Amino acid sequence: MKKDIPPARRNSDGEAAPCLKTVKDTSAHGSMDAESHLDAQLLDSTFDSVFLHDLEGNFLYVNEAAWKTRGYTKDELLAINLHALDTPEYARLIKTRIKALLENGGGVVFESAHQCKDGAVIPVEVSVRLIEYSGQNLFLSVVRDISQRKQTESMVGNVLDSIDEGFIIIDRDFRILTSNLAYAKNVGCHLKEIIGQPCYKISHHIDKPCYLNGEDCAVKHVFDTGEPRTTIHTRYTAQGQPLYVETKAFALDKNDQGEVQTAIEIVVDITQKKQLEDERHRLAFFDPLTRLPNRRLLLDRLEQAFIASARSSQYGAVLFLDLDHFKTLNDTKGHDVGDLLLVEVAGRLRKVVREVDTVSRQGGDEFMVLLQNLSDKERSAINLASLVAKRICASLDSPFNLAGQEHHCTASIGICLFSGYDSTVHELFKYADTAMYESKIAGRNAVRFFDPAMQAALEESSALEADLRQALSARQFTLYYQPQTESDGRIIGAEALLRWNHSNRGMVSPLAFIPLAEENGLILPIGRWVLEEACERLAAWASISAASGIRLAVNVSARQFRQPDFVMEVQEILKASGADPARLKLELTESLVLVDLADTIAKMQALKAMGIGFSMDDFGTGYSSLSQLKCLPLEQLKIDQSFVRDLGIGPHDAAIVETIIAMGRTLGFHVIAEGVETEEQLGFLVRSGCHAYQGYLFSRPVPAAELERLLATGYIER
Ligand code: C2E
Ligand code: MG
Ligand code: MG
What we know:
Oligomer: single chain
Low-confidence stretches: 1-37
Structural class: alpha+beta
Radius of gyration: 47 Å
Bound molecules: ligand C2E, magnesium ion
Shape: elongated
Mean pLDDT: 88
Strand content: 25-35%
CATH superfamily of the largest domain: EAL domain
């Protein structure tokens, strides 16, 4: 049914062209009129369909595109009611939209589908406006065919869904606007659970953006800089399995200020690739049976060790280990049992070395252990390496249970030290191998050093160590006392110096056995004995008037001082002996003090609170700074004898000694010089303001009875 349209303007067919005004348009001025009068010719020339209909859905006007696109004649279309024209869904949709329009006015735009005369359906974008026309409320719909766009979108959607990479579009609030199937699969969700959700919630199961947790977030980078970014993230599945993903993000669109509004993130699951790589790495660098590093990895680590050793001047060592009689086990019990032993041995080896050391399997029954940072002194390094070798032998000592059968196993070990690049990796292997053969020749279950001189040194230390272990119980230790005096020879104190009176070796210097005792821990019982002996002496002197006023200095070694209960040990010894703590002075070296300054200060303060004093021994040979010195509760600096010895010889020693004395006095320390042998040295020290002296010029270290005799006169005559 065609409604009469009031005459307005005529188009070329002589038809009425609607003259329209929107309901809300209150500006019905003359200038607006010209704009709002639509020309039907103009309307017919657009590609969009234009409909004018009333509230009941009766068309008042349709343009050419409207009837042509749908396959009707103009009259046919005008005769159909809007609600009969399209699918019932569309009719329902338009009803609700129109209702909204009537309530709110203005216009609406929505997507829908239109049906053609032949039944074909075309996707459309509809914009509807409520307008006033001749005092009547009418609807003006402009309908655009969006088939092309929809086709492209669906093609893109299909393509995105068919790729293996996850694809999402994210807005500035990290909300996911679009996702493809692969992404949904990667995060283990349905597509509909993802859209509109923050990406951190979906992929990391957290409540705030992942960059706030310190993650390197590619999307955040894109929003901040506009630049693309690729990162690798580790995620965990609901079952706690790690999932490695590579995320690439780049900007999709920017606002007028150039700020990125939406970003694309492409997510590639690289878990399998990574597992393959890890597996390849494991196969290339680890022994499949024992899971120990293989020869190739060891070579690599050894190269690194050379570099580190050259830099730190620390010795390292390789231990070459071959199981004794392994072939017999293999031949009699079979390879499976042999394999069991190798796995067990590998486990035991790993347990006896430090985390930083490398235990590797070279093949067969051969293992190699790389030890680093042993010591900067060759002798100590030899001792430490042989200590590890002994620990290895001990660890193999207890029987192995191989498939229910007890088995005993020993090993022959060859050791070769290295320092920096003094030999090549292959030379080193050869030397260690040679040394291992020496062990086999020596009757197996043995340890040999490659270098005969090293071997001799080791044997000597071993013998010394065995003797040292006897020394305490055999009462071979004794203390000598070296007087400390003022410049005129008046005795103010003494230093207790350890002597080892060995039945065959004679009097052994502490310099020969204290470092060894430090390494093997014997310094702990020895040091304790020294303190006990010195304190008993002090207690005895308390009742001898000539001796009661002197201070006794006792050397404390690093390992002894570092014992957690050192303070308590000193307290116990003082109590047991009854010695006056104020008479006791502990000598610490600079290197000891600096190792763990906080622990040092705490212990020194606890001991000082008991009345004990401290002297810094060998001062000038270490690297303590003024600021460190100031925070130590010291009372005395002891100028190292090397400076005193070279007074008048070395060009700088006089200056060093003067500086130490001046600095010590400024900081309020008592300054004593040790190793004073000549009148010239004494003269210089006196002129420089030194407080006290110790050295052969006054007296050598002497037995207690001799010191007591000297104390009786109070002075030492020169
Ligand atoms: P030190 O604490 O610096 O002791 C001074 C050393 O210099 C002593 O050597 C002493 O005999 C020596 N000496 C003293 N006056 C002179 C001199 O005028 N000329 C020369 N050439 N030497 C002089 P000693 O007794 O052989 O002790 C050596 C080091 O052994 C000590 O150096 C100390 O570090 C350590 N030591 C000695 N007894 C003990 C001890 O009971 N416990 C600990 N942990 N270490 C000790
Ligand atoms: Mg000393
Ligand atoms: Mg000294």
